[in-house]
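Would you be willing to look carefully at the protein I have copied below?

:::
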Amino acid sequence: MLLRIKFVTQIGIKPWGIFLLFIVKIIAAIAIGWINNKYYPLNDYWGLNKEGFLEYKLLISNPLAYFKDITTSHYVDPYGNFFNTVDSYWNDLRTNIGIKLLAISNIIARGNYYINSLIFNFFGFLGYIALFKVFIHCYAHKKKAVIFGCFLLPSTLFFTSGVNKDLFIFTLLAFYSYALYFILNDRYTIKRLLLLLLSAVFILLIRNFLFVAIIPSTIGLILSSNRKFHPAIAFFGIYFLACITLLFIDINCTDFQPLGIISQRQNDFLQLPTAGSQLSMNLLQPTLKSFIINLPDAINHGFFRPFIWDEGNIFMLLLSIELFFYQGLLLFMFFCKETYDKKTNPIIWFGLSISIFMWLIIGFVIPNIGAIVRYKSLFLPFLIVPILCNISTEKFERIKRIM
């Protein structure tokens, strides 16, 4: 318990500041719960909470069945189809992990969504703290920018505050980044190693495509952290080799075809009921030619949507304005870029490579703007913090005086 308190308090933010940041997160948690309950009756958040309460009843009535059924598969191929979204034990497991945890939380909450949300957000807030510790170690002189980029990005704050897999994934990725970074840059400890391994395992089980992304990024970080390789060379080189390897496997292995898995994932999403913010997409074929043809649309969807003029409600408009603001920040950074004596910290390349990979996959697979924004939001801090911290205050003030 004392270690957890130290983890939260020893970050260079005063206790009242930590408290206020946590209150902001709880407000976001209440907001996402209330909005979804009022306007989207069939949402994942309240549905998962309901399933969690049913699982709680199983826990107290038959604890053996509670622990046993998470390993039970009812499919013809019991433990195959690891990357599939239908007829797959592993796809069900992504949700079942959250339901099992909710059952434990319901020992206190008794099915109350908002109490469960409070409990889960205690855990989620630790992920924010972990990410802050990484970035403040890189940008010690840019504390305010790091606080804003780690704790206060609207869409990230909103979508990682619900009782949903997004909260878990963001927190696990933050824990993984924290453990890996400080193992390489501070010292190796058993606790950090366990945190790294547990985070990686749960990322693999809950969102396997993200696990695929962190493997080459981790190798790139290790290679560039010893200063023998420039980060750009290390990360581009590793991802290039990874792509070549996956293409080789796709062509020569009939049992595991990466392009086929991605195209099947897109097809599964297209089979879902049409949403109000549905995008028109070409059906991906499991060929390199099809992926190249659809690459411009994937970049458009993954990196630039929603546009301000896209149809939607006021909520979608606010999300598009937020994205437009970030794009403006990126352009502004090039005019007011900070000048450093040393090269960019490799952890920045680590976050950028994972984010770009995942945004590209999202662009290829997801046909719904609302879902695109939600999935993209998990990676925004890895992109926005470096942008904010690379804007020179002195150059900015100089431009203001000229204007």
Remarks:
- DSSP finds 19 helices and no strands in the chain.
